[in-house]
Design the sequence.
């Protein structure tokens, strides 16, 4: 009875640990493939949240243009996401409510201030 309980208790701790390490290993492989696949012109995000364009790559580093004319060198390990590939066409943003001309907005003479004073109406 005690041996069965001990085996069940060990399984409760070992199985989740094994599953988590397997999932982590798969995620690391995916990120490694992503980091190795970047080419000049790709838009990427670094671990610090920096959005940039890839200018050139080496085996270990990548040169990123973080602003027009401003190039920084990062480790490839800092790349966590590719926003767009260099050879993909760029999608245009769809128009939003704020893109409408002002003529379409109702003009009721009220400028939006609501502090209750008559001079603000």
Sequence:
């Amino acid at each position: 009875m005690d041996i069965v309980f001990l085996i069940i208790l060990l399984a409760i701790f070992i199985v989740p640990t094994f599953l988590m390490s397997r999932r982590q290993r798969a995620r690391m492989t995916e990120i490694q493939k992503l980091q190795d696949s970047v080419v000049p012109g790709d838009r990427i995000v670094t671990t610090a949240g920096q959005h940039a364009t890839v200018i050139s790559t080496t085996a270990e580093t990548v040169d990123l243009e973080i602003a027009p004319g401003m190039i920084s060198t990062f480790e490839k390990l800092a790349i966590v996401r590719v926003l767009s590939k260099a050879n993909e066409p760029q999608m245009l943003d769809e128009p939003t409510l704020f893109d409408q001309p002002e003529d379409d907005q109702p003009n009721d003479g009220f400028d939006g201030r609501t502090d209750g004073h008559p001079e603000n109406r």
